[in-house]
Amino acid sequence: MSDTPNLSADAINDLIHGRVRLAAMAYIAGAGDADFTAIKKAVNTSDGNMSVHLRKLEDAGYLAVTKGYNERKPQTIYALTDAGRAAWHEYLEKMRQLLVET
Predict the structure, then answer these.
(1) Can you give the C-alpha Rg of the chain in angstroms?
(2) 3-state SS of 22-82?
(3) Which of 65, 60, 67, 59 is nearest to 28 (CA)?
(4) Three-state DSSP class for 33?
(5) Other C-beta atoms within 10 Å of 20: how many?
(6) Second-level CATH architecture of 13-101
(7) Are 21 and 55 in contact (CB under 8 A)?
(8) Where do the domains of the chain lie?
(9) Is the distance from CB of 23 to CB of 17 less than 8 angstroms?
(10) In terms of Cα–Cα distance, which of 27, 58, 56 is closest to 40?
(11) 58 by DSSP, 3-state: which?
(12) What residues form DSSP beta bridges with 77?
């Protein structure tokens, strides 16, 4: 049957779909770039948990990381890479398809 919706779980990007990473990606995509503290506060998680999830996104090539200082305090800024933005848009499109097709 050709009209059967594609609801395969395999089509969902597991790296983004985890709730902490999903929230972080959404925040960063909306902000353009954001520092670690702002992301952590928006996602409402611990430092350790946030850093693990951001590292996974960075290792996948989804995030660019810039380290610097703000008034002598270390600051880490995250932004989506081109690959990260493409993965984010693909993820959102898949979610739209799932919502429309169900």
Answers:
(1) 16
(2) HHHHHHHHHHCEEEHHHHHHHHCCCHHHHHHHHHHHHHCCCEEEEEEEECCEEEEEEEECH
(3) 65
(4) strand
(5) 18
(6) Orthogonal Bundle (1.10)
(7) no
(8) 13-101
(9) no
(10) 27
(11) helix
(12) 35, 66
Angle, alpha carbons 53-92-62 (nearest 5°): 35
Q: What type of residue sits at position 58?
A: E
- Decide if pLDDT at 9 tops 90: no
pLDDT at 1: 44
Token reading at 85:
């933005």
Residue type, 83: A
Mean pLDDT of 26-54: 96
User: How does pLDDT run across 57-92, given as a tens digit for each residue?
Assistant: 999 999 999 999 989 999 999 999 999 999 999 999
Residue of higher predicted confidence among 24 and 99: 24
